[in-house]
Amino acid sequence: MGGADDTAPLAELLDERQHLIDVARWMLGAGAAAEEAVTDTYRRWYRLTDDERTGIEDPRIWLTKSMGSICLARLSTPGRRLPDPDDGDAGLEPGPALSETISGVLLDALDALSPAERAVFVLNDVFAMPPPTVADIVGRTPRECAQLADRARSSLRADRAHPTPPHQHDRIVRAVRQACALDDAARLVPLLSRDAIAFFDGGGKIRALTRPVHGDQHVARALLTLLVPRSRTTLHLTAANGRTAIVVRHHEQVAAVISFDIADQRVTHVWAVLNPDKLRSWNRPHPPADGHGPVRHG
């Protein structure tokens, strides 16, 4: 960096590095490969001239894009092997923040995705990056990235769940709604898988959680905080994408649509759509004949 004007607060620099480590570990797994990807990213930064670095408006975005392309290239390497956590040279363990949102089960499921699907899912669903940024990293159009994200979610659902009959799905979602309406964690937690994971899609238009929440206790707390009873806020049950979902209305407007994946009588995934752009069809004055259009996650 060229001079004092390039200096940033130490806390900001450390947070930037942790962000890169988190992204790399979601994409490559916890281990040496992720650490090397972060190191290679900073090498790229320091290969730039002073003028080139000065011309970068947001270094964090530039670094994230660079590291995303590095990770994607490594994911595409034939014969790539994720590190075994039991290996002595597996690298540093994930930090506390990452440990709350990631598990070996989910990493194994992510490893079954194609490189492009994994990259899009991680960047879009886990880190809530803007669609143009994701498209730039992956080298696809935003529309193609949306399709990749849909395929990734479908694959993750298929990997985690045995088909649940509609009547059982409906019964469990009704129980979840009741627990949330009563703000009752003791009722809600037993309805969730111990490895449950929740995604909150705010689309950058509402201050929603930008990382998934992992584990029954954390998911329950997040749902109860989001749906804490308030005047003129109501929880309804309706069909979304062919299954019972919870629709949250505030001042008669649909503010969220929450759908669930269920296996073995427990909720495995929560998909909460809060992005106002994706809820427009739910707030039309004259909805379609079938009630509402489908909600797309991502």
From TrEMBL:
Pfam families linked: Sigma70_r4_2
Family indicated by similarity: Belongs to the sigma-70 factor family. ECF subfamily.
Domain RNA polymerase sigma factor 70 region 4 type: 106-156
Protein name listed in UniProt: RNA polymerase subunit sigma
Gene3D superfamilies per the UniProt record, alphabetical: Winged helix-like DNA-binding domain superfamily/Winged helix DNA-binding domain
Keyword set includes DNA damage: no
Organism: Streptomyces nigra
Record keywords, A-Z: Sigma factor, Transcription, Transcription regulation
